[in-house]
Amino acid sequence: MSEMPVAAINAVLAQYDLPGTLKCVEPIVQGHINHTYRVTLVDASSGLRSTYVVQQINQHVFREPEKVMHNVRQIAQHVQGLEDPGHCSILQFLDTRTGANYVRLEGQYWRVSPFVENSISYDVVEDSRIVCRAGYAFGRFQAMLADLPMEDLAETIPDFHNTPKRLQDFFAVVHEDPVGRAGEVSREIAFFEKHRELVSQLELLREQGMLPRRVTHNDTKINNILMDQESGEPVCVLDLDTVMPGLVAMDFGDAIRTAGNTALEDERDLTKVNLHMPHYEAFTRGFVGVCRSTLTPLEIDTLALGAVTITTEQAARFLGDYLGGDRYYRIHRPQHNLERARCQITLAQRMLDRMDEMEAVVRKYAVAADVSC
Ligand code: GN1
Ligand code: MG
User: Fold this and answer.
1) Which end of the chain is more exposed for a tag (fewer CB within 10 A), N or C?
2) Domains within the chain, CATH numbers bracketed
């Protein structure tokens, strides 16, 4: 990470009515897109400390940050208006002195949220009960937003989870091969050729009107949920930048891609990468259990396919970025995107090997009487 932009952060904080002055800035490095900092303020008179998360929006990825923050506002208002918001909410951004939920500073966009104390987010989860609660959190998120009118939300990244389009873009960069890397990945390219049709099915069903578009999160990585450190209960869902109309199966699938992997997203030792069936089942229990009444039978039937689809799509996005010269995702080592892609291809293959079992688990929780975590 480049040097910490302390002066900019100070200028951002000055737009808010916050107690104290900046004492400490630390980077939070989990996301691949935005720049995120944990900042601590100390009030000189009382000595009280308060902690916030300050984030700079990546404008290469989010070309229209106002749209992102408009969506965030719509979602927050909708959730606040719910009679029973349940026990897992969404991340709230603070308002500036003039009532905006972001700050524009020298052409860059920043936002501030309170740091949620005593909370933790997991890149890999060990405990199946926590995975089940994560399933509940994302399923609940889905159910909470089920009646938010889609017209109220802007499309922050067009065709974000349009898998056939993602693969088309991937094959275009293979063909163009701008930095001369395609030769080293012919085995990986063959994987996408082989499964292109299967992973295009969901989008096709959507185009045919068989699968509905709903307000979905679209980035349901397991580390986008904050859990209470002591109780393990979900506290809130983070990263609302890509909340827009989409397919439920992709939200289910992206969480399985992360919570159901026995290894990290970028594991280099591919023998460690596998679908963790107890975690898959636990997540399904929590997710399907809380939102099944809002889903159509075909949506339920295609959830497992969503996991294979988005894992393959993600692999294509990582590999496409590698072939294009690493311009999209932040990388921490030279072949990082290639390693991420190989890990995701391996995981997608492990899922394909167990599709029947995965579908049976979904069917089980579509009707199970007890879906508590
Ligand atoms: C990006 O930066 P982060 O972790 O929120 C990406 C997701 C990918 C994810 C892969 C806007 O999310 O789509 O699934 O990396 N976000 C965007 O880890 O492209
Ligand atoms: Mg994100």
Assistant:
1) N
2) 3-62+91-115 (3.30.200), 128-367 (3.90.1200.10)
